Amino acid sequence: MRCFTQSILILILISIGLLSLSVFAVEYFRPENNSETLQLTVEEQQYLQLKQHITMCVDPDWMPYEKVDEGRHIGIVADFMRLFANKLNIHIEILPNRHWLEELTQGKPRQCDIFSLVMPTPERKQFLDFTQAYFSFPLVVAVNYQEYFIGGINDVLDKKLGIQKDYDYAELLRLQYPDIYLEKVESLDEGLEKVSRNQLYGMIASLPEVSYAFQEQYIGELKIAGKLTQKLNLTMGARNDEPLLVEIFNKAIAQLSEHEQREIINDWISIKYVSETDYELLIKVASVMLLLFVIFMYRYALIRRHNYRLRHLSVTDKLTNINNRMKLDQEIGDALSLAQRYQHHFSIIIIDIDHFKNINDKYGHLVGDYALKALAQLLSNNIRDVDTLGRWGGEEFLIICPGQTLKGGRLMAEKLRTIIDQYPFEYFAHLSCSFGVAAYAKDQNVDILLTRADNALYRAKDLGRNKVCTN
């Protein structure tokens, strides 16, 4: 409960702007050299002068990382690339492509000098060198809003999880967790849509992708349920037939300051908060407390409703949906206590279905169940509101009748016997019952009262059934 409350508080603080998402979401790579001037060797400087410009392949649509929008390279990666271009004092030219797979195929014939955002794989290492990572984000699981928070990937290995195809961390997860249930989807939007329709339990993606998608839609429908230990460490790829290229970009990455990294990432995934007055801060804190109170009351209502259902199930017969033996024992004990204290009258009626075994043998147990349910409904519809009906056991029912003398109990039993005898049941032509009635007598306990009613019932059966007898 403590972890749940802390998670809720963090999400609320983020949602109203009191915390920046990037404060705890992003792992910054601290620079090894913070000097303003990039220290390149003479050979590296000559290489860049001869190069004049660098061609770059990008993912055409992977926001908030990068996207080509009407010829403009935008996103987190685009801002980093502009920063690198300034540090290296060289123009970086984007090669136009519609699909990421097309970009990769251009790496082999060396049409792309660099790939802005790519993960190293054995196949790619045949034609690319890879820089050190210039930022890292955790993988998260987005689920439906009603789902519980998860502690780690091991909690959901048996659930169907979506993951984008063509992204390499899918295979890394399969290698690390052979039992994981992954379904590849075309895009993040498709995966989140399937989660919202309960076709997937959750969608695995990096935190910026999910946060960016949530800004557009799914507010109130989906949530981030947990952060995985795995991180998306993204690097640049450089053509390996010009090894100086990767060394130059590694120096540029090493010189990145924490301020430069945070400024770029905050532009795309943080939710900023500007404090204007102390009163505004007070209002926002009060809003947090109110939201926490609403959440607490909602949880309390759910627990209360759940407890009520459990209590109801504990005293209800599963087949007939009327009181069970445990509830009847309680009610008859209460009725006896009231009668002894205030000298009130009350009577009980025990009802037994005649030849019930023949119904089961002739029509089957499903029809036998129907007979029990139909009789329970018929009795419920024809007793007083103050009376208590329940299934006593097997094909026997018991009615507790407060305020009824033996004569009143007998009249009620006779009325019920006639109704049952004339009722047109669905699966068989006729059903009858035998009734035993007993009224409370002074200084008698529950066992004696029940024994008297049982004896009356046996007498009704001995007299040919479909009769009412009293004791």
UniProtKB/TrEMBL annotation:
Names of required cofactors: Mg(2+)
The record's EC number reads 2.7.7.65
Reaction it catalyzes: 2 GTP = 3',3'-c-di-GMP + 2 diphosphate
Tell me a GO cellular component: plasma membrane
What this protein is called in its record is diguanylate cyclase
| Cross-referenced PROSITE patterns | GGDEF (PS50887)
Q: Where is the GGDEF domain?
A: 344-471
Keywords on record: Membrane, Transmembrane, Transmembrane helix
Q: In terms of domain of life, where is this protein from?
A: Bacteria
Q: Where are the transmembrane segments?
A: 281-301
Q: Which GO terms describe its molecular function?
A: diguanylate cyclase activity
**InterPro entries for this protein:** Diguanylate_Cyclase (IPR050469), GGDEF_dom (IPR000160), Nucleotide_cyclase (IPR029787), Rev_trsase/Diguanyl_cyclase (IPR043128), Solute-binding_3/MltF_N (IPR001638)
Q: Native species of this protein?
A: Methyloprofundus sedimenti
Query: One biological-process term from Gene Ontology?
Result: negative regulation of bacterial-type flagellum-dependent cell motility
Please state the span of the N-terminal signal peptide per the UniProt entry. Answer: none
- An example of a Pfam family matching this protein is GGDEF
